[in-house]
Amino acid sequence: MTAYPPSPGTLRPPTEPPAGPPGSPAQQPNPEYAELYAAYERAYASADSLEAALDPPFRTAGDAWVGPAARTWQQQLETERGQLKKAAAQILWDIYGALSKVPPYLPK
Fold it and tell me: Which sign, positive or negative, has the C-alpha torsion 104, 16, 19, 10?
């Protein structure tokens, strides 16, 4: 498994803001944060299956087809498989980066 950013459970969920001290400005949940948080949860939940999507054909490629063309195809498949694993992690890091730049709450 590729190195992922922290899981969504470790981040502040898009809920009602905590009550601040008396006299502090009232806040409301930021819709942009809530949308990014939901996208991050969905992406995080499916990242492992995306990473593993090319594993079955890669494991069976040499059994079903042999010869020089098969070896070339298997090498290309291995390269694509590695790129897919990196892409799965990069998607998470991109959403995590965007999420970390958006405040969870806005003034009312």
Answer: negative
Per DSSP, the chain holds a count of helices (H) and strands (E) of 3, 2
Question: Is the separation of the CB atoms in 37 and 11 below 8 Å?
Answer: yes
> Taking the model in full, what pTM does it have?
0.79
Q: Do residues 30 and 106 touch, judged by C-beta distance below 8 A? A: yes
| Inter-residue contact 84 to 5 (CB < 8 Å) | no
Instruction: For residues 79 and 66, give the distance between their C-alpha atoms in angstroms, rounded to a whole number.
Output: 18
First to last CA, the chain: 42
pLDDT digits (tens, 9 = 90+) for 45-61: 999 898 888 888 888 87
Distance CA 85, CA 74 (A): 16
Give the whole-angstrom CA distance, residue 46 versus residue 43.
Answer: 5
- Report the phi/psi class of residue 100: left, alpha or beta, with left for phi > 0 and alpha for psi in -120 to 50: alpha
